[in-house]
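Tip: read the tokens left to right.
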């Protein structure tokens, strides 16, 4: 279900958060579906359970999941979550454009690159 990239410079819990966000927003994890337990997911990914607990806490704080005491975590989905992700994507794109401007890379070159990447 979740694959981690150990070459990624981001903390592992952030990768777990992002993977679950993507699965929820794509509809792979349906609303009210139960998430794997902290222990089972930590065992499956061969990482510390505290890392999974931190990721689940962040997902809950962001509104992607909810917990029921003694039963675990469950998927919460609403359209606002998709809008939040779109906003974050826009912010990241703005950062890339700012960096490209600082490096004097023309927008046309970036658009050509985007087209190449989208065809892969």
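Filled-in amino acids:
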């Amino acid at each position: 279900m979740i694959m981690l990239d150990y070459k990624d410079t981001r903390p592992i819990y952030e990768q777990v958060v992002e993977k679950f966000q993507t699965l929820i927003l794509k509809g792979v994890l349906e609303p009210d579906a139960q998430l794997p337990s902290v222990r089972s997911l930590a065992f499956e990914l061969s990482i510390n359970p505290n890392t999974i607990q931190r990721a689940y806490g962040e997902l809950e704080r962001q509104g992607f999941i909810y917990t029921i005491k003694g039963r675990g975590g469950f998927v919460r989905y609403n359209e606002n979550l998709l809008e939040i992700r779109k906003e974050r994507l826009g912010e990241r794109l703005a950062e890339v454009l700012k960096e490209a401007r600082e490096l004097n890379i023309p927008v046309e070159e970036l658009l050509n690159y985007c087209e190449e990447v989208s065809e892969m």
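Helices lie at 12-25, 38-45, 49-62, 79-102, 107-118. Residues 100 and 107 are 8 Å apart (CA to CA).
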